[in-house]
Structures are given as structure tokens and as C-alpha cells.
Amino acid sequence: MYDIRRTITMVSAASVAALVALAVVSAPAASRMPGQARPFLTGEIARGQSVRAVERLDEISSARGLVGQKLSPELADLARAPVPRADVGPAMFRLAATGMVRVVVETAEPASVRAAVARLDGRVERTTQDLVQAVVPRNRLAALSTQASVELVRAPFRHVEQAIAGEQVATTLAGAWHEAGLTGKGVKVAIVDAGFAGLAERQAAGELPTGAVTADFCGGKLAVESDHGTAVAEIVHEMAPEAELLLVCVDTELDLAAAVSYVKSQGVHIVNHSMGWFGPSRGDGTGYIGSLVEDARANGILWVNSAGNEAETHWSGTFTGGDDPVHDWAADGDEGNSFFWPNDSVICGLLKWDEWPVATSDFDLVLVDAETSTLIDISDGYQTGSQPPLEELCVGQTTGRDLVVFWAIVAYDVTTSPRLDLFSYSPPLQYQTAAGSIVDPATSSAALAVGALCWQSRQLEPYSSQGPTIDGRVKPELVGHDSVSGATYGPFTSCPSAFAGTSASSPEVAGAAALVKQAYPAHGPDALHEYLVRSARDLATPGLDSATGAGEVQMPTPPDLVPPTVRAMPGSGRAGSRIRLVSRIFDDSGKFRVVAQVTRRGRVVATLRKSFVSASGPTTVVLTWKTPPNGRGTYRQCVRATDRAGNASPLRCARVVIR
Predict the structure, then answer these.
(1) Which residue, among 196, 170, 174, 171, has the nearest Cα to 241 in the 3D structure?
(2) Fold assignment, 160-311+436-535
């Protein structure tokens, strides 16, 4: 981190100016008037800066130093901050308004941690591997972090629902599959999401099946926290109206682990997860969340995931400094990456750099009010060779007006020149990098990642996250359609509108996979994945690319799964003569081949064949058999027809009398 505390002990007008110049930088170019010089925090502007802002930095740094390295910076801040509003901010902060905080404890001794939580008046919610999820009093956070069995107390990973009924069946050409009887029947699809508010209303209106199974792993919030999952389920149901739906609610990474165990136990074939997770992972599909997706795939589940909506809120590059330790976003020395911050909303920033699994360099992430050049918050955790290369913060504002703010990156100790990635949970950034904006767990090689096209124009949505992954793999694999109409988010008017974002395109692909699974029950996740990718309509440059993958999801002509119908007709004739063996055959594809066997007392005496016959309706097929000279008696002709798709009719037989 950038050490402010040591300098603040010698506060004077001059030292405050120098200090703030190091801590935060310029107002954003996006906010300045044409021809107006960009104000840097030096000279008169720095001297006008409130000392309170500097003292705020000192409080943050002191809070983090107070509990050493075992309490994450945001929890250290929360332990000392005023009680946050209950209706603004991430779930962790809303819970904190009640005096309790949901945390994840990293430990090699989960039993000891569970006991410590109980002693500190907390409640253990879930345990998996070396993680314990618990709710503890805010004023006991520091005490929990001092337990010998605790390695780190942190907030749960942040997840983002990737959303910004009607059009997807037509745009994917799935209607022909429905007409062919391929509706997802017998296929289990799980929607793992943040909530299913309004589910009862959608079921009563016939938008969702009443037989959908629910599983609440989100602390009793399945029907109240969010309607995002309900909208997602609508799309899956429209694409695959007879698929069995399991609606699974999660809130934290441990909830997600429980959900994966559940869907495995229920024999689920396909999972849709229209969510992204932001935590300590490189962006190559590894890490805790990625391991859960791999586990699902290894157990026969196709995991379909939204690629993310971060193409306009992501930046990537290497650190470029001038005469100070603040990153220059542009060649003109601009040190602020600006954006608008709507009133009564929460923004989050996550900065990570490619020195995994532990950082040797130390960067800090700073949020500044561009209009007043006032520092708002800073994430300045220590990276000393044992911590992940990650800084993150979330801040809510209720000033009554929209603000213009900017992110700044400060280099405290740079030992290499790693790739930096900034993800901003906010409106679009001034400086953006679409490439590499795909989020976990869509980055996993075990996930089928889906980007978003406007269904009307077939153009890639500007916010649709793109690859490649940080290890160079092409992502997403496909793009589906968004801005589709539905009961939850309303009708389409233009792109984006209604249900927009990769949250909408992902369940379209999951529903398409259910149709393929019904048609080919033996297909596992690899075969389903390959079928959908192979059937896509290529876009942009030929072949795979990291914006649209293999292309737009398109269902090919539905496979012919209906065998011909056959009726063998009785026959007769004289021994030693040629007789006609007649059958009536119908096939919906219009082409079939015929094999007939003549048997007597269970022994085949003749096999007759006719190559493919073209017919537009029920057709009479005649085969000629030369009867044996001394073959008087009763025989059977047994007929089977096979169409070009390989569907074979049951064997149908009739009596043949030879006189």
C-alpha cells in the first residue's frame, strides 16, 4: 500500500499538498469543459483539499494495521465504520446494518473455527473443504481474526447477475424442433441464480411450470431477494417447455458449492448460471469457483454460463507512470479513469495483476470525486509476498445527485511489470478494454460461455464480455440473443431493453442444449457442447474469435427421430412361381429402404431388399420372391423399413400361403 501514515505525522500546508498529490490525482477528462485544463492535485488545488480526506486515509490504514494480516481490509473498515444503511449496498453491508456480518474464514482447522464462532456469539452457516461461512457480530470481527486456527477472515466473493419471452425461439430456429416433438422432455435443467422473486405469480400466469423444484441455499431469500432467476427461468422454459426445471438460489461461493453438490445428486443434465463472480482468481478458470464448475462437468453436467457484461467497464494494460507513482491511463498523462455514479447506488472496483498466486508487487486502487478532487475511498491492502494480487472496494452514495468520479491506480512497490485488470461494477468507464473482459466462471474450460447479440440486429452488444482468457483461450464459445421480451422484465422496444445482457443469452443456449439432449439422450456434456458449437452461424471473421466465439446459436434442421410405419400384407401363390410380397409403408422424411425376410418354421428361407424409396405419403412396396418348386405350405413375410436417419421400424409380419 501507499504509506500515508508515516507522512501525516508532519502535517503542514505544504506536506498536505504533497501527500494528497501522491494519494489521489486528477479530475477526469470526461468531466472537464472543452478547452479546460485538467486540474491536478498540486499547487492551489492541493492546498484547498480538506485535511479530513487525509485523515480518512490514516483511519483506513490504522484499521488495517490494527488486526494484522488476518482480517481483510474491507472488513477492517466495516468494523470501524458507522452502521451502513440497510437498503443500499452489497448483501454483506445490508446485513451489517443489523449489527451482524457474513464472513468466510479460510482455515485448515474448520472445527476450531466453528467453535470460535460460537464463542463469539456468531452462527456457522456452511462449511466446505477449508472454508467456513458464518455470521458474526461486527464488534467481534477483530477477535475472530486473532484465533490461532484462522488464516484469513474475509467477505464472501462478490457475484454479479449479468442482466442489463418472446423472441428467442424464432431467432434460434427452435420452433422446428418443437414441431418435431423435441421440447426438452425428460431433461433436467437447473437454474442456479441469486433469487426467484415473483415465481408464484409467473407460475400462476402459466409463464413457468408449477412443477418446478426449488432449492434454497441463499438463507431463505429464494422468493424475495431478486427476480433475476425468475426471468432466466422464463427463457429456459420457452426454449425447452417440457424440460424439468430446478430453481436453485445461492448468495456466496459456499452456497454455490452446496448447489453443485445438490444438482449432482438430482441427476441434472444442464446448469445455467447467469452470474459472474469476482474473487481471488487469475481469470483462467482456476480458483475456487472454477473448481466447482470443473466438478460439475466431470459429473456429466453441461455448465452454461453468461460471459459477462463487462466489455465497457473493464480495463487492461501494464502500469505506466510519469514523475509520480500514479498510473497514466493515456499518453497525455491522464491519471483518472472516470465514470458517472448514479445516486442511491453502489459501485465496486476490483484491481488484480498477474502475479498469481501471491503478489510480489503492491498496487492500490483509489476512488476520487472528480468534481471536488476529494478522495472517497482507497483499497490499500499490503502485498508482501504472501497475499493475492488483488485490491477491491465497494462504496454506496446517497447524496441526492449523480456524481462524476474516477479510479486511480497507485504503485507502492513494483517488482515486475505485470498485466493489470480493472473491473468496475459501474456505468461505462472512460478508458475501456473489451478484450479479456470475460468473467469467472465463464473463463473455465469446463464452462460453455455465452456472449450477447441484439436479437433484432444480430449485432454484438457493446457490453458483452469478450476473451481471450488471460492464458490465451478463445472465449466465449457462442453468442445468444438478448433484449428479449418476457413477463418479468417486460416487452422489447429497442436494444437494450426488456431482458438485456448475457444473463438472457445464456439460458437461451441452455434451453437449446435441453432440446439436443432429448434428441440424443446418450450425449454427455462434451457432445452437447460440440453439437451447439458446430451448429452455430459464424459471424464477423471466419472461424473462432474472442468476441462471438463460434458464432450465433442456431438450431439446425431437427433430427429425424421417427421411424417408418410398416404394415405387411398377406400373400399367396403357387410353388415354383414368382409371387408378389406387398407391404404398406409411411415415413415422415419421405425416403426409406426395405428388408423383408421369408421364414418357415422359424428358419429364414429368403431375404429380399429394396434400396431407398422416395414417397410423399403412404406407399405400396412390392418385392418379388421365387418360391421353391416343392415348397407348398404356410410361410411368413416379415418386413422392416429404415429411413435415412437410421430410424428402423419394428418388424411387421403377415402370412403367405404357397399352394
Answers:
(1) 174
(2) Rossmann fold (3.40.50)
